[in-house]
Design a protein that fits this description.
This protein has 460 residues and is an alpha/beta fold. The protein has 4 domains: 155 residues, Alpha-D-Glucose-1,6-Bisphosphate, subunit A, domain 3 (Alpha-D-Glucose-1,6-Bisphosphate, Chain A, domain 3), CATH 3.40.120; 103 residues, Alpha-D-Glucose-1,6-Bisphosphate, Chain A, domain 3 (3-Layer(aba) Sandwich); 95 residues, Alpha-D-Glucose-1,6-Bisphosphate, Chain A, domain 3 (3-Layer(aba) Sandwich); 81 residues, 2-Layer Sandwich (TATA-Binding Protein). It is 36% helix and 22% strand. The chain contains 15 helices and 22 strands. The protein is globular and about 70 Å long.
């Protein structure tokens, strides 16, 4: 069993570490047993991505659940949102073995309760960790059974959910009447290479696949479209093909980034605003969640469409909590995570992609023109700075603007400074000595001036 330090392995929302040094089959077995105990389920559903270590880790996890008398349904290769679909449609707690866009030597576990409800530090992950640590010291405790009942071993069975997942998504967004579109998709050798052909099948789409071969060593580029260098191949291919748009998915295919017909990257905030408008057309007056570093355009569009915008901290646990609390119909983040009430409040980049295809194919203008209504401001993107004292540097930014009549401050997540013409946010990383800066303004010149002034203050 891996000699694991669970303080390094168990993160805020998931489990992630190097295989087999930090996470191996024996430790996965303990996590499977702990997950079964904490959820109290009689059955769990388990899936995995294309990493070479994933099948063996799934086998260990399922064995641990079965040892606690819990049946394990293994759905095999899947995207993370396909696992959420299985959890939601089957009403079962679920576990997805993936390290998303991390390098090949990593793996991990994303867990959810029945109905794709999130498992984070405050919703079960802390207790799971404590049970695993206890089992590492003393071994698995004897299984509790009902009085006079014989101990029951769980069964491990397999099930294919790809076709039903695809059908469910197609039932939410109708592409049957759109004009024919040429779409380049960069799967990054990740799970979109498994899901896209089935989801897109039968639609008026000419698919140009890139890096669809499942390969957890990521031979072409990192499966992390948030980094602009990983979009370069897609952008060039869109231009070369004369395509209508390009789509890039991350390794476990729960995030989707969009490139327009010119090969220009599209802000996830613009996609959030576009999808919000479409969802509000179906659900008039609905609530839409957005985190505090999405563009000003998002709440503006939501209000214009008769909806109610709600601003949250960054992070899927906060988004999902607010969606549940408010009954929101949709939520979006700057990181290209998109959450849907119709998808158990879980995030699915594939469903967001279908909305973009439906919006584009439902009219004649190119994507760049269609999105013009949603791209109203200029943003810096997220800029990281290594600092020794996060709090001191944040307070230096506050002091920089203190005393100005046109400035307001809030501390919902880090420090946000807002004027009538621009805003900035400085947030500390929870795991590294970093400050993350985001700036948005009414034009490029103003954004650059605010960005440079803030960075000079942050970096001393």
């Amino acid at each position: 069993m891996a000699d694991a330090d669970l303080s390094q392995l168990v993160k805020a929302y998931d489990v992630r570490g190097v295989y087999p040094d930090q996470l191996d089959e024996g430790l996965a077995e303990l996590f499977g047993a702990a997950f079964a105990e904490v959820t109290g389920a009689r059955e769990v559903v388990v899936g995995h991505d294309m990493r070479p270590s994933s099948p063996a880790l799934v086998e260990g996890f399922a064995r641990g659940a079965a040892a606690r008398g819990v049946d394990a349904t293994v759905i095999g290769l899947c995207s993370t949102d396909q696992l959420y679909y299985a959890s939601g449609s089957l009403g079962l707690p679920g576990a997805m073995f993936t390290a998303s866009h991390n390098p090949a030597r990593y793996n991990g576990i994303k867990m959810c309760r029945a109905g794709a409800a999130p498992v984070g530090q405050d919703t079960g992950l802390r207790e799971i960790r404590a049970r695993v640590e206890e089992a590492m010291r003393t071994g698995l405790p004897a299984r509790r059974t009902e009085p006079r009942a014989e101990p029951r071993s769980g069964r491990v069975t397999t099930r294919d959910t790809l076709a039903s997942y695809a059908a469910y998504l197609r039932g939410l967004v109708d592409l049957s009447g759109i004009r024919r579109l040429k779409v380049v998709v960069d799967a990054g050798n990740g799970m979109a290479g498994h899901t896209v052909p089935t989801v897109f099948d039968g639609h008026p789409l000419d698919l140009v696949p890139m890096y669809f071969e499942l390969d957890g060593t990521f031979p072409n580029h990192e499966a992390n479209p948030l980094d602009p260098k990983n979009l370069v191949d897609l952008q060039a291919r869109v231009r070369a093909e004369g395509a209508d748009l390009g789509l890039a998915f991350d390794g476990d295919a729960d995030r989707c980034f969009v490139v327009d017909e010119r090969g220009e990257g599209v802000s996830p905030s613009a996609i959030t605003a576009l999808v919000a408008a479409r969802e509000l057309a179906k659900h008039p007056g609905g609530t839409v969640i957005h985190n505090l570093i999405t563009s000003w355009s998002v709440p503006e569009v939501v209000r214009e469409q008769g909806g109610v915008p709600v601003r949250t901290r960054v992070g899927h646990s906060f988004i999902k909590q607010e969606m549940a609390r408010t009954g929101a119909i949709f939520g979006g983040e700057h990181s290209a995570h998109y959450y849907f009430k119709d998808f158990w409040n879980a995030d699915t980049g594939m469903l967001a992609a279908l909305h973009v295809l439906a919006a584009l194919g439902g009219q004649e203008a190119p994507l760049s023109a269609l999105l013009g209504a949603y791209q109203r401001y200029t943003g810096s993107g997220e800029i990281n700075s290594t600092v020794e004292d996060q709090h001191a540097r944040t307070e230096a930014v506050r002091a920089l603007y203190a005393g100005r009549d046109d400035v307001s401050f809030d501390d919902l997540d880090g420090l946000t400074v807002t004027t009538g013409d621009w805003w900035l946010n400085v947030r500390p990383s929870n795991t590294e000595p970093l400050l993350r800066l985001n700036v948005e303004a009414r034009d490029e010149e103003m954004m650059a001036a605010v960005r440079d002034e803030a960075l000079k203050t942050i970096r001393g």
